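assembly run, all chains below
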Amino acid sequence: MPKKSLKYVIIGDGHAGNSAAETLRKGNPDAEIVIISSKPTHYFDHSLLAAFLLDKKDITSLYVYPYTWYKENNIRLRLNQTVTKIIPDKHKLILSHNEHVYYDRLLIASGAKPKLPESLSRYKSLLTVFTDAVDALKLRERLGKLKHVTMVGGDSIGLHLAGAMLKLGKSVTFVLNEYNFWPLEFDETVKGKLIGCLKKKHIEVIVDDITTEIVKDGTGINVMTKNGKIVKTDLAFLTSGMIPNIDFLDGSGIDVQTGILVDEYMHTSAQDIWAAGECATVYYPELKDYRQTTGEINAKVLGNISARNMLDEKKVVSLAEPGKITIEGEDFITYGWKGFSIDI
Amino acid sequence: MKEEKTYLSSERESFDHLTTARRVERTVFFSTNKKDFAWMRENVPCQTACPALTNIPGYIYADYQERYGRSYEINRYVNILPGVLGRICSRPCELACRHGWPGFGESVAICHLKRVAGDFKPEGHRIEEFMFGPSGKKVAVVGSGPAGLGAAHDLAIFGHRVTIYEALEHPGGMLRYGIPEFRLPRNILDVEISNILRLGVDMNAGVRVGRDIKLEELMKAYDAVLLTAGTYSSNKLGIKGEDLVHVYSGLDFMMDANSGKDVFVGSKVLVVGGGYTAMDCARTSLRLGAKRVLINILTTEDYITVNRDELNEVKTENVEIRGLVSIEQVERSGNSLNVKFKRNRLGGYSEKGERLAVPIKGSDFTDEADTLIYAIGQRPETGFVKGVVKLEKNSMIPFDRSSSATEVKGLFVAGDFGTGASTVIESIASGRSAAWAIDRYLVDRTRRKKVVRFEKYTEKQRERAWDFIPRQVMPTLPVKERVDQVEVELGLNMTLGKEEAKRCYLCYLKFEIDVTRCIYCRYCMDVCPTNCIHTSKDVITEEDGKQRLVVTDRWNEVSAIVIDNNNCIRCGNCKKVCPVECIDVVKVEHIEQDVEV
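ok done. output:
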């Protein structure tokens, strides 16, 4: 057992971070546990986010635990505070308001952020993201004014969002291409099924084409593609997959590939630092390979395993149960997701 | 339609508006003081990082002025192949560029701007050469790669009779046989080589020293012999199966492909290695019909030598990069190869500072492929030198790095042949430096020297807004059109080139406050965006000539307000607000000059 006074700091208030915090608390009832998150709202269920647009419920209905849960479990929640730098040698974090936070053991569970294809980087201000509760709140306020929305890319957030939009009576256009599809391999079968399924729902689908330009047009937006299509829309969503959110690691000396490189014990290259969830690239002995994991199930499993290793248990990582995505009645295996159907 | 080119008087001849008396004030001053060399080293990071010491701010400013011929010549003073290097240089300058320092954005596309000069120099552009009279001495250069060509050029300039012996059919060495044509079109290479041969250099191509003619014979027939025979022996993997059919070394593969031979690749190709040759092999495989190509590297993309632009092109062409793997062995299985790998984790750093990889126990996996290409470095083939010089244990030739001289009188070594594989620009620099040493050996005195040139800068200042122009992206061929050997990078056009040229801070400008005129109003400090102007009590000159500010904020100690040029981005804000015009700007350049006798 580690000594009682250990201070565990967790960067990130998502599935991985919370699962780790819970495990740490169970394993060490007296330890100091701090979760630092750059978001103003706390841990919520992503799968409810699209449905949240449909009803008038309060934002707290999304929360997995009420705030009181953290108090009861003696977990300190520091919301709206951004880590800008890690100094592993000094066991120190620097926050954006220049506060220095010390840790004994650190878990990085900073998750992922929407991927902005390089060719679209200059249109960032015209693209809307939909990844957290604040995005959902903002979008819900604007819903009344929207008639048509466009999904730039076709990730699962886009698919969920499109479902909600249809129910709200909005029309939807998808600009799909293989680079942006995720979390499935976009082979011909998946492509065919997906297009069929979306079209059945009266969603306009543009395939084998790439968004090249986005311009403001009065109150709306024009999304233009390489093949010369112009989609007149009220809102363009960035739904081109996610990339690990690890910019703050620059200069820390922690090894990264796509995400933070961790061994089978979820340990990073820096002493007393572990990483879990979508920000980590994990070595799985059973695959004999590294894998960048996505999705809620993986994040929870990895958070748990990291925490057990932070409690000195020496627990080797293993793959989570695969989930399935149902498209047009056919199931496709996906790793890291509980699975969902888009045939609703 | 292209606009007629006109120069603003302030841009081209900025002295026209001055009175004659003011015009003659314009003086140029040369220095060999180590303090001035130290200032150059610290303040013009791009030029310092360039092995050939190219005057980068100088040629970029000429690009900005649309004086492309001038820009090309500024390059040519120290780098005889600007068109070539404007495409394939490894760009150490861009890693050093002040614009790429933290907080300042991205480095200037220095290499692309070199190509701009080459692409847009006027037709029939006049090449400048400064020839010495004939010396009556004869020099043989063995090898016509970048080092050999660099040396031959300078030796010819010094008035010596130069003969190049090239083992392969055409001159150019690795430039022609190592680098694929889609990165370096051969017509560009041919023109720049012929510019060297035109100086009276004899080219004996297809003559291999050691086979067709003995080194001993050359030593007798010439006053000096320079060996620049490159690195034509591939490093081996040292694993089982590396001699199987369809397992190539990267060098053999590229040489065969570049000579137009029919090379088998099949549909799936595995490449091992993380250097430029590995990237070239992968991209060439695709053009020879491979459907899937994987580059296997020991560590991660962060630790390979290839620059980001090149890596992006490789990925754009759908070459996959598999990081953190070590190759273990190769077996034949029917028509294909079974290649066994282990996964790695990152380890510490080697003595040379390279990142190490450590194989993970029990992580073996097998991948199938039609072809395996390993490109893990090259060594010189020094066999033909054996009878003349005693080789070191590792078969390298012992020589003095500063004078390029071997222990045998009249025999010199340069380029990769002496040091092992390096870059093209390092080889050119090494060849030229050997030529200067040979000249000293032949005429027994120094005829060229390096000096620092100062000139009062009276031209228009850069605009602060230019600091925020994003780096211009190199236009490239769409992936579908990348077939055969069509050049992939299309080059910046004049408009993009000018935008990019504006981004250069022109670090060769030295901003200095004249203490005798300064009234300590500190307006300059208020408008400085990088906090590079300090109240200081002393400037200490260290032994190597480097100067260090002793900053103070106690007014009773302040002896001067000083601009720390190392943090200065030459925005000119200080000069604009100075009420007493006490800030002087001087252009400082590192140049080569004749030693007068």
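The longest strand of chain A covers residues 211-217.

Chain A has a mean pLDDT of 88.

not gonna interpret more than that til we talk
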